[in-house]
Amino acid sequence: MRSVLNPLLAVFLAGILAACSSTPTEDDSSATDTMPQQTDTSSTQPMQRPQPKPDSSNIPLTAENFHNHPSNYDGTTNTKVIYFAFDSNTVPAAAFETLRAHATYLKNNPNAKVRLGGHADERGTREYNVALSERRSESVQKFLRVQGVSSSQIEVVAYGEEKPAAYGHSEMDWAKNRRVVIDYLAGRP
User: Fold this and answer.
1) I need a surface site. Which of 27, 107, 151, 164 has the fewest CB within 10 A?
2) At what angle do helices 126-146 and 96-108 cross, to 10 degrees?
3) How far is CA 39 from the centre of its chain?
4) Per-residue DSSP letters for 37-78?
5) pTM score, whole prediction
6) Helix and strand numbers, DSSP H then E, in the chain
7) Tens digit of pLDDT for each residue in 153-183?
8) Order of strands, sheet of 113-119, starting from the edge strand that comes earlier in the sequence
């Protein structure tokens, strides 16, 4: 009886492990991709020019889309604030090019160092806001690290709600306070 159960148990466990495995899909676009994707540039395809940035002047700047509004990010190291959605530590897609510019600068200047100061709005407990602001800083840190920045160049700090950028109590004020500030400590761009 035992000799029959062992092979059945092995087949059952193999089935469970196969069901638990995951395979990436083609449309899985992660913010942490670092390998450039090669495309077929045969002579039958014309060279594609980079598309200009879309005009964001017609997109209303609201508290709901503030974190991902194109007007907040210029794609250069001049932008030093990354905004986040309510109760989120996901780096907004609009900030990707700006963070890539910071990563390029840091990689090309190994003596440069940054402090990533995470912030939260006033809603939530002090402990929760400190933890959330730390997760936000760590998300930006992870993005920079995946781009090739050395961990010795990055310092993470969590301020919670203690250093607001806006002192009001409106949705827009709260949106301005949900942020990570990139502060160059050495080797300023």
Assistant:
1) 27
2) 60
3) 25
4) PP----TTSPPPPPPPPPP-TTS---TTTGGG-GGG--SSTT
5) 0.70
6) 4, 4
7) 999 999 999 999 999 999 999 999 999 999 9
8) 81-83, 179-186, 113-119, 154-160
Q: How far is CA 159 from CA 50, 52, 154, 180, 186, in A?
A: 39, 36, 16, 10, 21
Residue 13 inside a domain? The answer is: no
In a domain, 174, yes or no: yes
Q: How many domains does the chain have?
A: 1
Rg (CA), the chain: 22
Task: Return d(Cα 102, Cα 106) in angstroms, integer.
Answer: 6
Structural domain of residue 137, as residue ranges?
66-186
CATH classification at residue 70: 3.30.1330.60
